[in-house]
């Protein structure tokens, strides 16, 4: 069975596409489908489709109907997974091949990219609103706290040791709140990025080494880098701040026993994001930070980048919102896939302009 039209057209299809032959076996796979299934065409051809993909839809009945009526069929929503990652909601299109009786063309349209880009724009707007509130809170609360702490210290001078425990508690709690407000001020006063051409791996390596001598001392951090990646256009300090925050979250999720973190970089030319002026921007440089921790609680997974949403008991909910804001300021986007035992934060960034690279 040869690919439809031509090999060039088949390979150029932007969506995962498969040809399903008799007995529901795969006969052809295009390159995006190889990426989606994380397997080569050689290993997929001849395999039953439903052995390689778990699809939350009555696929056997759908394929029978397509062949029986000789007409296409569209499935608007179905969860699709290879079993190696969380399910992805997709739209499925099935159509009979007119010149190949008994064969069906299956197109898979993952909704994750469009949905995540939409969420990223919403999160950016929410982050800006939170910044205004953060600045107001920090300004209005810090001054009274300084007075409360000072008054408690003065009172302590004339009290018995037993009564001083109460004033010490007041001082300790006011210092804790001031520290929190300093984090809020950092969230609100982040300067615009000073962007230049940088090597992603340099920023990752700085963050990795910093983590291993501090909060990530009990973690095993491995590297899976594509050394051929070109430079990105970013502020190196802010990008390192993003990587450190994600590494810290993974380390804290692992707890005292420690765990494993994998740093992965690769190139994906298919990802694009629309700028505010309507023009398209490619985001081919990919960074994934993958950990084997317990995963993000399902009830907050969809809102994890929103300000003040946290999965930790004493978390402020500002860390990932700050990460999202920094990546948005760099004209990139960030997403997360999480299930118990595997959480992947994926950052997509643009290439550095040619003149910057030179």
Amino- and carboxy-terminal Cα gap: 47 Å
Binned, the helix content reads 40-55%
Q: List segments where confidence is low: pLDDT < 50 over at least 5 consecutive residues.
A: 1-5
Please, what is the oligomeric state?
A: single chain
Note the topology.
Elements lengths: L6 H6 L4 E4 L5 E4 L1 H7 L3 H4 L4 H4 L1 E2 L3 H11 L3 E9 L6 E9 L7 E7 L1 H45 L4 H28 L7 E3 L1 H13 L6 E6 L7 E3 L1 H19 L4 E9 L4 E3 L5 E3 L2 E7 L27 H11 L3 E7 L2 E8 L4 H4 L1
Parallel strand pairs: 8-10
Antiparallel strand pairs: 1-2, 1-6, 3-4, 4-5, 5-6, 7-9, 10-13, 11-12, 13-15, 14-15
Helix pairs in contact: 6-7, 6-10, 8-9, 9-10
Q: How would you portray this structure in words?
A:
Helices cover 42% and strands 23% of the residues. It is α+β, with helices and mostly antiparallel strands and 358 residues long. A six-stranded antiparallel beta sheet has the order 2-1-6-5-4-3. Strand 1 and strand 2 (26-29) form a beta hairpin. Residues 1-5 have low confidence and may be disordered.
